[in-house]
């Protein structure tokens, strides 16, 4: 999905078979990998389906690919402020 010059790419999500909100956000200046994690869990007392395990493996591969390629990334649920250096300027996001 594009919002003007910002590209938002869901990497792993509930609708993709895993518990996650991993998202790549790209702008002309920087790319950020948000919430770089994925997991499975019991639902209605049932263990995850074998297809969900395949989705988890695939999602973790995608996350690793983007984590190596894109920088920086934010730790999941622990970040309160991100600071970037863009063209010799410091930009803080809170």
The shape, in one word, is elongated
Distance between the ends: 23 Å
Structural category: alpha+beta
Low-confidence stretches: 77-94
With strands numbered from the N-terminus, the spatial order across the biggest sheet is: 1-2-3-4
Query: How many helices?
Result: 1
Pattern of helices and strands: EEEEHEE
- Helix content range: 10-25%
**Beta-strand content estimate:** 25-35%
Biggest sheet architecture? 4 strands, antiparallel
- Rg: 15 Å
Q: Give the quaternary arrangement of the chains.
A: single chain
Task: Return the domain count.
Answer: 1
Give a count of the beta strands, DSSP E runs of length 2 or more.
6
Description:
- This protein is an alpha+beta fold and 94 residues long.
- The protein has one domain.
- The protein is 21% helix and 27% strand.
- The chain contains one helix and six strands.
- It has one helix at residues 50-69; strands spanning 2-3, 6-10, 23-26, 31-34, 82-86, 89-93.
- The strands form two sheets. The chain has a four-stranded antiparallel β-sheet, with helices on one face. Strands 5-6 form a two-stranded antiparallel sheet.
- β5 and β6 (89-93) form a beta hairpin.
- The longest helix is centred in the middle third of the chain and has 20 residues, at 50-69.
- It is elongated and about 45 Å long.
- The chain starts with a strand and ends with a strand.
- The relative contact order is 0.18.
Task: Lay out the secondary structure.
Blueprint: E1 2-3, E2 6-10, E3 23-26, E4 31-34, H1 50-69, E5 82-86, E6 89-93
Antiparallel strand pairs: 1-2, 2-3, 3-4, 5-6
